[in-house]
Each structure stands twice: as structure tokens, then as C-alpha cells.
Amino acid sequence: MADVLNGGPARPVTDQSTSELVQRASEQITRLVRDEIALAKAELTEKGKHAGIGAGLFGGGGVLALYGVGALIATLIIVFNLFLPLWLAALIITVALFVVAGILALLGKQQVTRAVPPEPVEAVASVKADVDEVKHAVKGRSRE
Known about the structure:
Elements: H1 2-5, H2 18-82, H3 85-114, H4 121-143
Helix pairs in contact: 2-3, 2-4
């Protein structure tokens, strides 16, 4: 291992002692675990962003829906008081608010869907593949 670190030629695995192989395996496993943790952190950060954006869009849709209810109530009052142009304008604004609220809710749902499942699926799959690879390497090494 020192030869490799010092720029010298690497010795074949068959010429290395068991302690050297164990040390190399330990270093590689440590590096592998760190890399997998970094991958899991990155994946969870991305999913958290989508969940936050989705929740914000849902909230925005809910607020606009409340304004829509207020506008609908105002429209009903105006309908009973002034009959034509004013209530028609208020009704158009009410419909527009509900359309915007619906669009925001759909966008929020889409963002939340992108954040599910919350566990780091890619990192878990990568760890499983790494474990399988180590198992096969150990079995192959024990046969020699």
C-alpha cells in the first residue's frame, strides 16, 4: 500500500499479506460508506426541496381559495343589491381566483409526488449493490 501511495508500482493482490488486504479493505469500506452517506444526504436534500415547494404551493392555493370564497360572498351580496354589471365583474374575478387556486393545488401535488418516497432510494440500492459485490469478492477470494 505504501508503494502505491508513494507512486511506486502496485503489488499484485496475491503477493500482499492478509493484514495488508484487511487494511486496504477497511480503507475502501470507509470511503464507500462516506460516499454512500453523501449520496443519501444529497438525495434527501433534493426530496426535501420538492416537499417544501409543494407545501408552499398547496398553501398558496388554499389562501387563494379563501379569497375566492370571500369574492363569492361579495358577489352574492352585489347580486342582490345591484343586479347587473357589478355582480358580473365580481363573478368573473371569483371564477378566475378559483382557477388559479386549482392550478396552484395541482402544481403543489405534483411537487409533493416528486418528493415521495422520503427515503433515499438510489443510495439504498447502491449500498445493496456494494454489499453484493463485496460478498461475491469474498466468496471468490476464499475459493483461491
